[in-house]
Design brief:
Helix content is about 55%, strand content about 10%. It is of the alpha/beta class. Helix 15 runs antiparallel to helix 16. The structure holds 6-phosphogluconic acid. 6-phosphogluconic acid (6PG) binds near residues 104, 132, 187, 259 and 263.
Length: about 475
Amino acid sequence: MSNLASVGVMGMGVMGSNLARNLARNGYRVALWNRSYGPTAEVIAEHGHEGDFVPAEELADFVASLERPRRIILLIKAGGPTDSTIDAVVPFLEAGDIVVDGGNAHFADTRRREEKLRAMGLHFVGAGVSGGEVGALEGPSIMPGGSPESYEALGPILEKISAKVDGEPCCTYIGTDGSGHFVKMVHNGIEYADIQFIGEAYELLKALGLSHDEMADVFATWNTGDLDSYLIEITSEVLRKKDPRTGEPLVEKILDSAGMKGTGTWTVQSALDLATPVNTIAEAVFARAISSSPELRQAAQAALTGPEVKIEVADRDAFIEQIRQALWASKVIAYAQGLDEMRMAGAEYGWDINVGEVAKIWRAGCIIRAKLLERIRSEYAANKLVTLLEAPSIVAELARSQDGWREVVAAAAKAGVPVPGFSSALAHYDQVRAPRLNAALTQGLRDYFGAHTYRRVDDEGNWHINWSTDGTEESADTAV
Ligand code: 6PG
């Protein structure tokens, strides 16, 4: 039995040290390295008893302590620090060794790094790791992309340390080069939308006059049904939490300015490049942007008027149920958009992403883990779907939810409660199912001012009206 380590982790921050502890708890001998030795020493001092660690101060010693093919997992800040760490370790590596970036890297960076290391005979794997610090320690959802050969050496280890559902790992081979980080990016885009919908439900419940404990109870109840999910569960806890300083509901003491590290933004930017609609995810990104634009908000608050933010209904419980329907339906739209984006990316970048399998590994460990994901997995397993929105059980549930969804969006508009997520999701629902869209008029206007031509419903080819002369129609396909 070699006394070399099976796997190495570079970066002893919370994510890196927790992942290293997870690996050790699963019986692997784990090599540890950090740019400065202090954090490595701390891991050994505090957790050395948890498993078989091989700490190294020098990079050469770290690499030398690893069995071949070397499997090295980086949990380093995305961007420059990741590149510099890769550049530092690569000179010590040999053909066939595997470098895994477990951070939230942009998939284009991963494609670049994978190509660069492949030219050196090395494998570079971009692995989305979702579940935060707790997930890293207890079992994350892991989305590795890279060469199939790298997954042969790496997959069993990642599957063993990942979250499990009925014994099945929440880790699977996603596809080549940047596919894993692309899927993680979409995960985060959906996460943004999920969080936005929860926030809109919270604002509506508040406008109904519920106390924070009553709102916490509503979310706790929703968490026992189709909305069962990690984010709904922790929403109940956050709403129930009292400010340690004042005893008031903590959430009302939190500045309403949302941060974002960029993965949701990337999801929307990539979708624009792919011409695939993720308008609901985009609304979540822009809602965060508005919340963190104090100058715009102060000016608008001073200038603009609106109705009193108060919703009065005859049957409060019935309206709360309608809010639940709006939240569930909007969530489905956001998931459908994200899954569609993955499908479009696969076609564009040459990845064979199995959307159903992605839903399967999102069922536990990750931040968007939810009961809905099992339904999505089973629908993709049972049906050949272009979009989640045609899955039989989803279609039926959306049909049952749409009246309540429409009532909520209308009530919110009348009460001046902003629900960009709910309303954009409803607009997406109505757009994709519409037999005719206003794009017909768009084409007419474009032909009028720019001679951009149009196609007809009753003929082939491209056509143009001579708007400024005799108004006749002519074929735009005639040879110039
Ligand atoms: C996860 C989380 C993780 C991180 C978010 C925060 O999947 O474990 O999504 O990646 O907490 O990226 O992102 P924002 O700061 O952009 O909300």
